[in-house]
Amino acid sequence: MSADNSDGNLSVPLRNVLNSIQCIRDRVRDGESNESDGAFNLSNFWDTLNQAVKAVSQEATKLSLAFSRPPLPSLQDGETLSESILKSVLTLSTVYYWLPKSQGVVLRRQVRDATVEVLEGVIQLLEVILSSPLQSLTQEQLTSTGGVWSACDRFVQLPRDNKAALLVVLTAQIGVVKDAIEEIDQALSEAQDPFNDVLDDDQDGDNPRGNQDTYWSEKDRRVIGPCQGLMKAAAACLRKLTPAVKANGDFREAQNVAQLDDLADISVKISPGIDDLALCLYPPMDYSGVENNVCKLAALLKKLLEMIRFSHVCGESELTWVQFLDGAVDHNLQKAKDLIAQDG
């Protein structure tokens, strides 16, 4: 609805509600939850939240349809539509705030992100309506309406408790770590020159590229071995932790909820640690950088393994692999240091 197609001041209520929802979005993204003084019913929270999300989706659809073809809504109808979408958004944000941190920071973070995604979808829809000429339902308006629906549908897949929220985090981390390990493995197996596919050779054949800074030396390859071992120990730790959380994780006791949060916080640091180490392994290899990042990743893994050992998710069967991986971390760390210290 561009300015020349607007009916009187019809754009005013839309712009007002747009500004209001932008403020709500910012508060949800940056604000804190209300701490619950009494017992919190997680099941009731989800029922109410899903109803609120459904209401936002319905109001967004009404708004989009009203501005999809001529004639424009009357000023009164425009104000009613604006009030309705704002009311649904306020209800959604209010229900989100009911979820206290005591139910788990990881859970709350994922619910927050999903709520913000819905609010941003509504904001985009309002912006499109305000900027589009009123001729027919534009592709941009269809896309933005679908964006609101998609964001609302995401709530069905959200984890329902902090245990499930941690499992979401672990699954994502396992995928990222697996990709990083496979990338190094592939670079090692494909060619002597890991940059073979990104740097152009001299095409005349008389001066083939001879820059040894793009090749791994024998010492480089020896150093990479324990670095790969450390990365694989990290991947194994995340893989083993997942069934331990599924079997033993508890989201009812406050202390256990906090332990799940702690496990999530350190788990998300594993993949950046592996990325930093992997980047150092490409030629020309900086041995001091490799050693620094090997030590950092090893320290992170030792901390995670210790946290697992003393958490409620670790039973007798878990203790076996925790101790094994702790030894594997020590072994690969020392081996990497020894190889780096050797003369080439």
Describe the secondary structure blueprint for this structure.
Layout: H1 11-30, H2 42-66, H3 75-98, H4 105-131, H5 139-153, H6 162-190, H7 218-248, H8 254-267, H9 270-281, H10 287-309, H11 316-341
Examine the coordinates and then state which fold CATH places here, giving the name of the CATH topology of the largest domain.
I/LWEQ domain
CA-CA gap between termini: 70 Å
SSE topology string: HHHHHHHHHHH
| Continuous helix count | 11
Helix content: over 70%
Average pLDDT reading = 90
Structural class given helices, strands, pairing? mainly alpha
- Biggest beta sheet attributes: none
Overall shape:
elongated
Low-pLDDT regions: 3-7, 199-210
Strand content: under 5%
Over the alpha carbons, how many angstroms does the gyration radius reach? 27 Å
Name the CATH superfamily assignment of the largest domain: I/LWEQ domain
What's the total number of strands? 0
CATH class of the largest domain: Mainly Alpha
Pfam families: GCIP_C, GCIP_N
Family: Belongs to the CCNDBP1 family.
Organism: Kryptolebias marmoratus (Mangrove killifish)
Protein name: Cyclin D-type binding-protein 1
Give me some keywords for this one:
single chain; 344 residues; A middle domain of Talin 1; I/LWEQ domain; 0% strand
How would you describe this structure to a colleague?
It holds the Pfam family GCIP_C. This is Cyclin D-type binding-protein 1. Its main location: cytoplasm. The protein is an all-alpha fold. The chain has helices at residues 11-30, 42-66, 75-98, 105-131, 139-153, 162-190, 218-248, 254-267, 270-281, 287-309, 316-341. It is built from eleven helices and no strands. It is elongated and about 80 Å long. The relative contact order is 0.10. Residues 3-7 and 199-210 have low confidence and may be disordered.
